[in-house]
Amino acid sequence: MIDENHLHGDPGIDVHPHHHPASAEGASPLQRDPARTIFQKGAPGRSAFQCPETEVPAVDLERLLPARLRREQPPRLPEVSEPEIVRHYVGISKRNFDLDSGFYPLGSCTMKHNPRLHERAAALPGHARLHPLQDGASAQGALELMWNLQQALAEISGLPHVSLQPSAGSHGELAGVLVTRAYHEDRGEQRHKVLTPDTAHGTNPATVTMAGLEVVKLATDEHGGIDLDDLRAKADEDVACLMLTNPNTLGVFDANIVEIAEIVHGVGATLYYDGANLNAVMGLSRPGDMGFDIVHFNLHKSFTQPHGGGGPGSGPIAVSERVAPYLPVPTVARREGSRGDGLPAFELDFGEGAAGSKSIGRLRGFHGNYGCFVRSYAYIRSLGGDGLRDASEAAVLNANYLRARLRQEGAGSVAEHLPLAYGDLCMHEFVLSGGPMKRALGIKTLDLAKRLLDYGFHPPTVYFPLLVDEALMVEPTETETRETLDAFAHAIGAILAEAAEDPAIAADAPYTTPVRRLDEVAAAKSPVIREAL
Amino acid sequence: MSRYTAITDADLQAMLATIGVSSLQELFDRQIPDAVRLQRPLDLPDGQTEQAVYEHLRELAARNVSAEDELCFLGGGMYDHYVPALVDMLTERSEFLTPYTPYQPEISQGGLQVMFEYQTAISELTGLPVSNASTYEGPSAVAAAAYLAKLHNGRSRIVISAGLHPHTIETLRTYAHGYGMNVVEVPLASTAAQAGVTDAEAWAAAIAEGEGRTSAAIFAQPNFYGAVEDAEALAGAAKRAGGEHAPVVVCQVDPITLGVLRDPGSCGVDVAVGEGQPLGNRLDFGGPSFGLFAAREEYMRRMPGRIAGETTDVDGRRGFVLTLQTREQHIRREKATSNICTAQALNALAGVVYLSWLGRRGIVELGELLLARTHYARELLTALEGVSAMHEQPVVREFALRLDADVAAVRARCIAAGVNPGVDLHALSGREEDRGGLLVAITERRTRAHIDRLAEALGAAIAAERRAAVPA
Amino acid sequence: MAQASYPEDLLYHSEHDWARIEDDGAHAVLGITWYAQDSLGEVVFFDPPEVGLTVKKDEPYTEVESVKAVSDVIAPLSGEVVEVNSALGENPAMINEDPYGEGWLVKISLADPAEREQLLDAAAYRASLSG
To answer: Of A291, A484, A508, B169, whose CB is crowded by the most CB atoms within 10 A?
Structure first.
């Protein structure tokens, strides 16, 4: 959507606020075309679909389906030809920025390269056209793949038991908190509090409420980790769990993790690892070794399942021995020699032991997002153990390099206007505060983000974590080149330099995108959420 | 360096110098305590070339028997419908495949417009004005609807029809424990005329027994046994039985049937949810697909997940944004209407492209084709010796049979003959009354010749089993 | 209303709510302060509570929604809702434009008129904001 030539720090058009191209004639082609939906295209009677012959004897419709159960008027779906559909969706696709087009340093989202090998493998009919209720004997390849993935995730997390079922990170969180609740209930305890740091992703507290428990917030200390005194004061026998991201959303690895685990385990609670930031520590440090009981993985982050503009994802969980009986079902088990030919067989395990299952049950239909498993498994096989460690090392190196490069930009003025919120080094991401920039230059973090769009970059995550003033959360990932990081640092420097001259340039940005700043207040006030027909 | 990273030795040295550390090791030594450092390599197979990984995945795929390899009459929640080539072509485009959730609307108009179009299509299909941009999949969408009901009326009781898919019931029970809600199951009717559908009297009675505490009443259309329910009667009975404290009526609907079946909105349903896989999504051994979620306007601020809305930019151009975001976890945190963040945007794209491809006329034509072929198959199969219909209700593309022979053994014989005849009902549901049951799904990919082959294979398998079962 | 204002004739709660005691001494009109509406940004939705609802001092009794947040509204006094400002359903932005007038939220009959002694006057509330 933004011309290649505009990458690397040059917005490419004159963007002086007093003569930016606001009029329709002066706008770029994408800006001149008004957004029209598929429902506004086509003509009555047009259709892309050719229905196959019925082939069977005709039967009166009334006999097949009585009128009172039948639809009177067809749904007003589009009436368009196949070429129209292709033009339409290819056309609107160009109004998207995407990872394949440019740098996407969205903090806590791990926008790393999506290898196309994975798409090719997942599309093989033996994976893509496999029915979930296919007998186990005729799905041995799929079950073996799932078992192998379970084993790999167990090794990466240092926690031996894995369920692949959850559909995304937040679904994994719910699985984990319900597992925790079942564990305590099974011991005859009604613990109702879950501790979450004030840096936590919003999914953490939302999950806790859905699981019927209460959120208790923990303060952050001056190093960006958990305030241990606050933790000691709040950790009691009513606490079911502490949910933690490590490194956390500030990019800070909590150096007190061993002590935190001791305090939490000391009161009988479990320790939950939000795996959103696992990309920092693969092969370097394992949640299980840090003392965590439960971890969820975001296969669409660390393990490069493409994001698809908001899904699909996949959120397997791995757990320690003590909470393993409560895992959601089914999981995949390997039975040695049960096939008769000496080879192992793989089967779905519903956990129905003689003593009765303690599983929390199902969280969805079937076995999980298998299509995502294929892709993430391919990734793990491509990299191997050493490759995963190298990936995390490169992710941390890139983040630190970009952090350091930004400090050099503009002879130190970027460092002055966008200081690091916490710490000196960082893990795979870092958080800057736009507070000084706002006060000194009169532009907000939002303005900086919007101006970055003109420079051809996706902005970092903004206004999160909540405790940092005008936060800017940057996660470059390991798959970016040094040249790209340099170009991004340069763009930030250029935008701040512009703002020093004239803050209106950023405040009115973007100029080059298919639409300019949108009125979110109007959208929320009288919501229009479907096309009127 | 893996093939997806780009750091040369020269890069590394320059980058370390810029950072001001002497080695990569130092970066970690200064941040991760020694006690929690992994002191050995991960115990995983060595990394492989792209070519080797492809061969490995191809080899695993080859050990599965897909709908490409045998004649597949499996259904029970996911169906082997034809996915047009343009769905693959569009979902593989970088612009749709590789962005994140559209947090920056100015450069995400493509994805946001797709959501808006998808919402319009789902709203049209269901006859309900408000649709979200997708949830994970079918059964968990039912659980999400129960949470909406809890937030809406604060009550704690969920009445469900036994016609819901067993996975839906199990999923709902898992979630309901978290919500602090209890689930009351209403059996299917036992009289001959009503066999196969929800017992409407027991349904109303179960809601009335709640004495105003029933939060939601949930049924499936068509139900797990393929039977078409009288949705209007069930919705009306639920409202009457609840009186002043009427429950939120939730219908789990199969969207591909909605060209021929009455839409939930016109039947008095409050919330329609369902599994979106039949709409242009692959089987993928059970996922990813998408869950649809639509409701009446009064529930708009209780909806889970993303919703795209229309607005204008500073120059007056039409544009789209994520809207009503104060419902969501990133803003409302512990009081959010759901914890959902990443949903199923790409699968929903496949859904709306598929619905555009079918079009207004096609969804009716396809529905009528399914009705006709399914009817043909049901007549043909129930005429076989040892096969009877489990119920006589109208069906759209799936029906339940009862076999007078061991279902597992009959299936094994059919599969050996290259025909997978359908789902072993008892094996899936565990319900006693499902013993001997076979659930057969007929998509448009199953021709008359295929159905005839199924009849032949099933007839032969049952005959062989009955001979084998006769004591010598 | 662009400029901060805190009328002298109102009583204030530290959670940014105001109460205007009616002349009969038995009823009060409640709303949110200039500071509260300014922090929220433009209010886009207000779903008034039902008449007859019992409200308790210091506890939330309704919510106001802006694009950025949904906030609990805390009752400055205890009582029962006798009237709600239903005009806000159509035009919730009135809470921003005229927080002490057209933007009032509910009217309650007071359960304990003595509770008002615990509220702040305009000067004390203003001081709490700068603190």
So the answer is: B169
Contact predicate A274/A245, CB 8 Å: yes
The CA distance from A126 to the nearest CA of chain C, in Å, is 47
pLDDT number for residue A342: 76
Mean pLDDT calculated for residue range A222-244:
96
Of B197, B410, B322, residue with least CA distance to A520: B322
- CATH number of the domain to which A272 belongs: 3.40.640.10
Measured between alpha carbons, how far is residue B146 from residues A528, B84, B153, B178, B330 in Å?
25, 34, 11, 11, 21
Residue where a domain stops, chosen among A307, A328, A349: A328
Judge: domain C11-130, CATH 2.70.98.10.
no
For residue C93, the distance in angstroms to the closest alpha carbon of chain B comes to 16
Answer yes or no: is pLDDT of A19 > 70: no
Shortest distance, CA C16 to any CA of chain A (angstroms):
21
Q: What is the tally of structural domains in chain A?
A: 2
For chain B, which chains pass the contact test of at least 3 CB pairs under 8 Å?
Answer: A, C
Domain spans of chain C? 11-130
Please give the residue of chain A at the shortest CA–CA distance from C67. A521
A394 and A524 part of one domain: yes
A520 touches chain C (CB under 8 A): yes
Residue A310 lies in a domain: yes
The residue of B228, B230, B334 whose CB has the most chain A CBs within 10 angstroms, and thus the best one to mutate to test that interface, is: B334
Mutation choice for A interface testing from C39, C42, C43, C44 by most A CBs within 10 A: C44
- Chain C residues touching residue B299 (CB < 8 angstroms): none
> What average pLDDT score do residues A261-269 get?
97
Output the average pLDDT for chain A. 93
- CA A119, CA A111: separation in Å to the nearest integer? 17
A462/chain C closest Cα distance in angstroms:
14
Residues A415 and A478 reside in one and the same domain: yes
Task: Report yes or no: C44 at the A interface, CB cutoff 8 Å.
Answer: yes
A151 φ/ψ sector (left φ>0, alpha ψ -120 to 50, else beta): alpha
Task: Give the whole-angstrom CA distance, residue A150 versus residue A346.
Answer: 12
**Pair A287, A394 in one domain:** no
Q: Please judge whether C42 and A520 are an interchain contact, meaning their C-beta atoms are less than 8 angstroms apart.
A: no
Q: What is the mean pLDDT of residues C76-88?
A: 95
- With a pLDDT cut of 70, the percent of chain C lying above it is 98
Name residues of chain B where pLDDT drops below 70: 1, 471-472
* Chains in contact with C, counting 3 or more C-beta pairs less than 8 Å apart as contact: A, B
Q: What is the DSSP letter of B325?
A: G
Range of the domain at A438: 1-35+95-114+384-533
**What pLDDT is attached to residue B472?**
54
Mean pLDDT of chain C: 92
For residue C98 the two structure tokens come to 């005229």
Q: Does C65 touch chain B (CB under 8 A)?
A: yes
pLDDT given for residue A26 in this prediction? 55
pLDDT in tens, A302-316: 999 999 999 999 999
What per-residue confidence (pLDDT) applies to B152?
Answer: 95
What domains, with CATH codes, occur in chain B?
A: 9-52 (no CATH), 71-78+360-469 (3.90.1150.10), 87-354 (3.40.640.10)
The number of beta carbons lying within 10 Å of the beta carbon of residue A417 is: 25
pLDDT in tens, A92-123: 999 999 999 999 999 999 999 999 999 999 99
Give the residue on A whose Cα is nearest the Cα of C41: A521
> What is the domain-level CATH number for residue A14?
3.90.1150.10
Full DSSP string of A246-283: SS-TTS---TTHHHHHHHHHHTT-EEEEEETTGGGTTT
